[in-house]
Amino acid sequence: MERWQNQYIAKVKTHPRIMEEGDEGFDLSAVLEFKAFKKQYPQVAVELGSGSGMHLLQLATKSPEALFVGFELRYKRAFRTIEKGEKKDLTNIFMIRGDARRITELFSPRELSALYIHFPDPWEKHRWRKNRLIQDGFLSELTELLQEGGRLSFRTDHQEYFSAAVKVIERSGHFVRESYTENLVETEGESYHPSSEFEALFVSQGLRICSSIFRRTTGATEAPGANFPTSPEV
Ligand SMILES: C[S@@+](CC[C@H](N)C(=O)[O-])C[C@H]1O[C@@H](n2cnc3c(N)ncnc32)[C@H](O)[C@@H]1O
To answer: Model's pTM, two decimal places?
Structure first.
């Protein structure tokens, strides 16, 4: 009997705009090439768990001078993102088909102008929570990568994960909250439009979208800002 093969594995492995995490991690020469490639951009932003790429593509269209890098575990989603970008003639998108928790292998301290974590898997059961992306250890790695003034955007339909993540981010002492809502659709009113595939799905199911944007500070405590924009610019 013939074994089923994911057709996207081969496509990902051979695409010059996708780097793959293999069984032994990243290939050293691919890492060096990627590091040289991103040097041509004055600003670099990263989305962790970028799914099928709708949000990354919107950002790349809006800011052609910046580079947008997505981390995505699924081959098909990583490939489709790049494919959609090519159809729009976007050259400022790069995908990492791999685990977002390896981000420090690819970026230097203070390199990133923005980090997006939108609709990450909530790992609902208590015993699975250690798998969540937002927790103290990983957040401190992400904090190192963000420039001072860089933005961290967190969005989810999962109320409990939202409260827990906001607590983790705020107690780190390295961020000031710029915006916060537990009902994005209501907050944005007529100007609201879903930013991603999963956001559109959750809104269509009647779920509330929680969203918060934080600005990286030097670490000294600052009073939360009042009139910051609700969507982060890189
Ligand atoms: C619920 S989906 C949200 C996708 C997208 N952000 C959106 O809003 O449409 C979560 C995505 O994160 C990816 N993912 C989960 N854990 C990951 C990890 N550790 N590294 C990279 N991607 C991950 C999943 O494969 C999935 O595509």
So the answer is: 0.93
